[in-house]
Each structure stands twice: as C-alpha cells, then as structure tokens.
Amino acid sequence: MPGLPIRPAVRSDGAFLADMTVEAATWRPGASRPRYEVVSSPEYRRYIAGWMRPGDAGFVAESPEGEAVGAAWYRMLPRDEPGFGWVGTGVPELIIGVRPLWRAHGIGRALLRRLLDHARLQGFVRISLSVERDNYAVSLYRTEGFAVVRRGMGRDVMVKRLG
Ligand SMILES: CC(C)(COP(=O)(O)OP(=O)(O)OC[C@H]1O[C@@H](n2cnc3c(N)ncnc32)[C@H](O)[C@@H]1OP(=O)(O)O)[C@@H](O)C(=O)NCCC(=O)NCCS
C-alpha cells in the first residue's frame, strides 16, 4: 500500500496509540489480552500515559478514508521508570504498530523511516526499542539499521545510531 498519507501525531491520537500498544503487546499469533489490561499495566502504560508530553513525537498513517491504521512514536522515559528498551538518559524509545488488516504493505517501514528522520532532525544521536526475539519485526529493525545491544529473556534491546 505505498503512498498512504503519514501525518504527525497529535494529542487526540492518544487512544489510537493505546490501540497500537495493545498490538505490540499481543503481536504473537493467537495471543489476546484485554485492552484495558494492557493499557493500565505499568509496563505498557508508560508508553502512552499523558500523551503527548513535551518531547513526545510520533507519526500516524491513514487509510484513504482518513482512518488511522498505524503509528510509530517515541518518548523519553526516566531512569527510575524505564521502558523495556531503556538504554540511557536522552535516548528516546520507540513503539510501532499497524492494524492487522493493513500489515505487510510497507506501512510499518514508512512510519519507522519518518520517525527516524524526525528523531535525527531533533538532534538525537541514538534511538532504542525492545522486541521479542521471534517477532518478525526484528528483520524490519535490522534492515533499518538497528543492532542488538542487550539480550534478555526472549527479548532484545536494539539501538540505531542516527548521526
Ligand atoms: C511490526 C509491524 C509494525 C510492521 O509493520 P508492517 O506494515 O506490517 O511492515 P512492513 O509491511 O513495512 O514490512 C516491513 C518488514 O517487516 C517484515 N515483515 C512484515 N510482515 C511480515 C510477515 N507477515 N512475515 C514476516 N516478516 C514480515 C519484513 O522484513 C518486512 O520487510 P520486507 O517487506 O522488505 O520483506 C506490524 O507488523 C505490527 O503492527 N505488528 C504487531 C505489533 C508489533 O509487533 N509491533 C512491534 C513490537 S516491538
């Protein structure tokens, strides 16, 4: 689906970003977890709570009908409340999700590239993420220049240098 419009995320996208956080938390085929449970859990709530705070940035892909179908965003989490992919102060962590029906059409890669360009323009030197090792998203990240910097229990932290 090349050419879907991508626009900067705004404050009112918070509920959609929560939906995409649920997609990221339940990516595994057959996995299901109630939305309220994911968005209220301490480990996922931190990626969306209070969207959008100063320093938050993201992009949303829209269908031809203007419906949000995917998003990529980053935020800076503090050392005392880190995300899965926290690597250091001043390094934003990204999250990405595309609605299931819209996947595998290049939307995720386009969103990721837009977000990486934005992070670079904002002066960030690195950006991080966390991904379960068997998620096919790993190959998206690798081909966009991310490398594993920390291996965990089934989950890796990856970083891309933006300089
Ligand atoms: C990961 C995700 C954001 C990618 O978005 P997408 O629009 O489906 O991805 P794209 O179509 O741009 O594909 C990018 C790459 O992902 C990989 N990929 C995408 N769909 C795939 C599939 N069904 N099987 C294997 N690899 C796949 C490929 O490497 C692909 O690159 P290629 O097209 O050059 O082969 C999306 O699939 C998603 O929302 N997944 C569930 C949530 C999630 O896992 N988020 C990440 C948490 S870390």
Describe the protein in words:
The chain is α+β, with helices and mostly antiparallel strands and 163 residues long. It has a single domain, classed as Gcn5-related N-acetyltransferase (GNAT) (Aminopeptidase, 3-Layer(aba) Sandwich), CATH 3.40.630.30. Helix content is 27%, strand content 26%. The chain has helices at 14-25, 35-40, 42-45, 107-121, 137-143; strands spanning 6-8, 57-62, 68-75, 93-98, 126-132, 147-151, 155-161. A 4-stranded antiparallel sheet has the order 1-2-3-4, sandwiched between helices. Strands 5-7-6 form a 3-stranded antiparallel sheet, with helices on one face. Strand 2 and strand 3 form a beta hairpin. The longest helix is centred in the last third of the chain and has 15 residues, at 107-121. The mean pLDDT is 95. Coenzyme A (COA) binds next to helix 1, strand 4, helix 4 and helix 5.
